[in-house]
Amino acid sequence: MYRKFELRLSDNFIDEKEREGCHQRGEEIYRYHKMKARGCIDKFIGEDGEIDGGALRNAWFGAVSADIFLSHSHEDIEKAVTLAGWLKKEFGLNTFIDSCVWGYSDELIGMLDDRFCRESDGNYHYKKRNITTAHVHAMLTVALSEMIDKTECVMFFNTPNSIVLEKDMQASTSSAWIFEELAFTGTTRIKPPKRLSPYERRDSAVYESYESDRMLHLIRHPVNEYIDEMKKLDDRVLRRWQSAWKELPHYLSDERHALDELYKLLQ
Question: What pLDDT shows up at residue 165?
């Protein structure tokens, strides 16, 4: 991970004329990543239910590739998919939508429970079910942390479905997955892309040192502390990014990365 952003968009950011096309494009990306992610997970569950974590990690790195990790509430899946399609259409960027992984949890737990936890009377063994649930949660948590580490940018889709402001203005979430992903952004190493100049990479090293110093401090704080450290993206910023990229001469756009234009806007 190199940068992390809090994303707040209006409902009409993508107008109706282009929404259907963006959603269709996003669905294609989502289905592809979903197939790759689930294929990796299924492949390394042994006959005894044990998970080969090392093999899974190696396969995961080779199978799933994305520029952006998009964290969102399950209630905002349609918005997330449409945004992924828009980012692909406008900038050629691939977005990994986190529900590719955590949306699989109940299905995977059910599959393992039917295989290892069902008693002769048709009921499930309580303690065995706790074990399968813990295994699945651990595996998917590792998979999500690997994806956050691997992608260049994390974007957290902040909506009323994902974050609630309490009376004391503290931000909270009822989603365990969102909480874990936000926590990962506070502990994941900062890795500048190789394409950056030595000067830009040196600036990034200073940023990384600052993040590392605050790492343990952040873990002890509510989720608003994680969100506060994210750069803010809204309709205005994304439109400026879109315009800057479109105005870039074609011969330069072949050599430049779209995310670099976003970074410049937020310096």
Answer: 63
Distances in Å between the alpha carbon of 171 and those of 115, 174, 214, 231, 262? 40, 11, 19, 17, 26
Q: List the helix and strand counts (H, then E) for the chain.
A: 12, 7
Residue 205: how many CB atoms within 10 A of its CB? 12
Helix 126-150 / helix 105-116 crossing angle, nearest 10 deg: 140
- Consecutive 10-residue averages of pLDDT for the chain (267 residues): 93 90 94 79 63 62 80 90 95 90 74 76 78 77 83 91 67 78 86 76 48 37 73 95 87 76 90
**Amino acid in position 149:** D
Dig out the tokens for 164 from the structure. Answer: 């609630």
Between helix 53-63 and helix 16-43 the angle, nearest 10°, is 150
Contact 147, 101 (CB under 8 A): yes
148 phi and psi angles, rounded to 5 deg: -65, -40
Cα–Cα dist 172/169, whole Å: 9
DSSP string, 150-204: HSSEEEEE--TTT-EE-TTS-EE-S-HHHHHHHHHHHHSPP---TTS-HHHHHHH
State both tokens at 191: 């890795």
DSSP lists the bridge partners of residue 204 as none
What global pTM score does this model have?
Answer: 0.80
Distances in whole angstroms, Cα of residue 114 to Cα of each of 46, 98, 103, 108, 196:
15, 26, 19, 10, 50
